[in-house]
Fold each of these.
Amino acid sequence: MQRLDKYLTNNTSLTRSEAVKAIKLGRVMVNYRIIKNNDYKLDENLSKVFLDGSFVKYNKFIYLMMNKPSGIVSATGDKKEKTVVDILPKEYSKKDVFPCGRLDKDTVGLLILTNDGVNAHRLLAPKNNISKTYEFICAEPMSDDDITTIETGVKLKDGYITKHCIIERESKKSGKITIFEGKYHEIKRIFGAIGNKITFLKRISFGEIHLDNSLNYGEFRELNDVEKEYFTGNNVDNKQ
Ligand code: URA
């Protein structure tokens, strides 16, 4: 059961106060009856809600893709820094959206934000080896040996040996790297381990979800149906 104003906030672009106003003005129907009481409780799985005569579909979860800009931290809240949730419109921050995985403050590109904790954690679980592809630029030219060393696995300062990864070189100092794990600062530490330095990093894919090139830095959109199916593991219970 859910309050009507909360249902509208979660499933339309209305903020809570706009939803309350719309209800008071008689713009909202539940099961073909106008309801003017904003704390009216409805069964989100069974009730049919209309706003201004248009059906309001029940979206159990929110799934967004953001082209993360530099200078913003991948967190839900931070005392000092601006977060990826802070730069979303207000209506999303109220829906417990969080970033699925982390990008460093200066890393840009694909970040998925959701309030579907179960599937986010499933995809992030190390045993799932989800691929993550990044465009990179490094400070020093890469030799063929450097590439083989990185692809095979390097020993990081803390002794951890990285798993197999793939590099597609585009120039001596740039290319794409695909990793199948997600250790803290992993790519920067891999390049550091061979005496090089990452100067630019942009995630362009997460598993089968690819960054939408039409999104400028800081922009976002909802995942489309195919992307959502991938994210939710095609689980019918989670389908919207
Ligand atoms: N590896 C890094 O070093 N930083 C990121 O933000 C992502 C992967």
Note: Residues 103-104, 107, 185-188, 201 surround uracil (CB under 6 Å).
Amino acid sequence: MTEQLLSVEATDLKTQIVDQAYTKAQITELFDLPFLELVFRAQSIHRQNFESTDIQLSTLMSVKTGACPEDCSYCPQSARYKTGLEVEQLKPVAEIIEAAKVAKANGASRFCMGAAWRSPKQKDIEHMVEAIEAVRAQGLETCATLGMLSAGQAADLGAAGLDYYNHNLDTSPEYYPEVISTRTYQDRLDTLDHVRDAGMKVCCGGIVGMGEGQVDRVGLLATLANMDPQPESVPINNLVKVEGTPLDQTEELDPLEFVRTIAVARILMPQARVRLSAGREEMSDEMQTLCFIAGANSIFYGEDLLTTGNATPEHDLALFERLKIKVSG
Ligand code: SAM
Ligand code: DTB
Ligand code: SF4
């Protein structure tokens, strides 16, 4: 009897462990569902976890622009590509505070500061600590994306009250070397571990439309969904093609495949804010609406992303009005 009980328990335990890890086969099955079935499932899960009409707004600010030593082949800020970008030094804290005030007045709940660094230096961390404290004092959630972090740097940012750290995996482990050679996938996972250990929330997602296969979108989402805990915030970027970058001639991804990626992300990470991120400027209102139906419930809000344009706030507010979407605090 006890033996039987033990074996049942052991089986249960095994089932639990297996259940926790999403396999790539399971995720591929989701991608392969009829579109309407996939979107229905995503919307159902979305409603179990969020107000169906709620959207969260994050505003980006590039606090240090261009001249980055990394070779990310999608990025206009890499010093290796001639993109005509104007390099800008680290912005003074006062300027960051002013931008945060404007973001808050315009309705954003989170302010995300991005810097074109491989990893910050100690003096950069000290500067960002001051900026984070000041932005928080404005009543905004704070997020930063500053490149790779050591455990100590993550601890300093966490102690300053940084709510979220954004560090994207960008694509699957297999496709990654096609896109970036100057830092490894494992480097990224290590930074994400440091962010978690420092008690901050994780903002981690990727880019689609970089010429990857569906297998790579599956691989990216598998890696994200199998993190324990899962990221609280998952930006899904559609590649913004910038002249001079190696990816500027990449073939457009089928827009419905982009929507599928959002839907699968929502199903796999039911409690995450799935952010419809870069690429919105080129999307129709109807395409964005499909993404919201598929479970996206956050956007980057503001005139610009980091160095490229974004859908305008006026346009976004008009779309929310048409859709009767409510901005959450
Ligand atoms: N330098 C830091 C880093 O890479 O960790 C932080 C800033 S970096 C610009 C933040 C993220 O923006 C990248 O990881 C990438 O996912 C996204 N990104 C950059 N250029 C993009 C583009 N052209 N289209 C879409 N997403 C892009
Ligand atoms: C993220 O996933 N996308 C944002 C933010 N995190 C930092 C950046 C998008 C950048 C798009 C290209 C640019 O404007 O430079
Ligand atoms: Fe540098 Fe970040 Fe751009 Fe890569 S994505 S080139 S690390 S700014």
Note: The radius of gyration is 20 Å.
